Amino acid sequence: MSSPFTGPNRPAAGPPRLPTPPTGWPIGSYSRYEEAQRAVDHLADNNFPVQDVTIVGVDLMLVERVTGRLSWGRVLGTGAASGAWFGLFVGVLLSLFSGTPGPTFGPILVGLAVGVVFGIIFAAAGYASARGVRDFSSASQLVAGRYDVLCQPRNAERGRDMLARLAMRPPGQS
């Protein structure tokens, strides 16, 4: 008996399909993702087998940046805009599949108007149900405290030496 994980039908080498911990030896550690990316780019520019390299974010945190205060005007305006886009999409589809030859703007205008009305209704209902608990908008981002560059053991020493030479260069040079 075989499964997708064993036997002749096992997928070729490449990124794992299931979440798995990274493997390899650390060859560099950086406080910003851009620095880790620069290190891997340096390795690639110098014909290093980068398929053996992994960038791992360590000490993950969810950062929520507040982008503004919510008000009834902003909520209704955003609801109207999103409803308009959806209504416009539905109206265009209806006009494309209508049996009338030539351009027909009726379904587009009706879809747009209905979309705006329903967008406002749903936005108002959602905001009213929150009852002032969350009167702000925000954007969330997953960031790491540091970024480790790992490499498979067969090339780790060479990669560590290349990144050590990169670290000795001034920041403007690659």
UniProtKB/TrEMBL annotation:
Stretches that traverse the bilayer: 75-96, 108-128
Disordered as annotated region, ranges: 1-24
Biased composition (Pro residues): 13-24
Keywords: Membrane, Transmembrane, Transmembrane helix
Superkingdom of this protein's organism: Bacteria
Stored InterPro entries: GSP17M-like_dom
Keyword Metal-binding: no
Ranges for domain General stress protein 17M-like: 27-100
Coiled-coil stretches noted in the UniProt entry, renumbered to this chain: none
The protein's name in its UniProt record: General stress protein 17M-like domain-containing protein
Protein source organism: Longimycelium tulufanense
Lineage: Bacteria, Bacillati, Actinomycetota, Actinomycetes, Pseudonocardiales
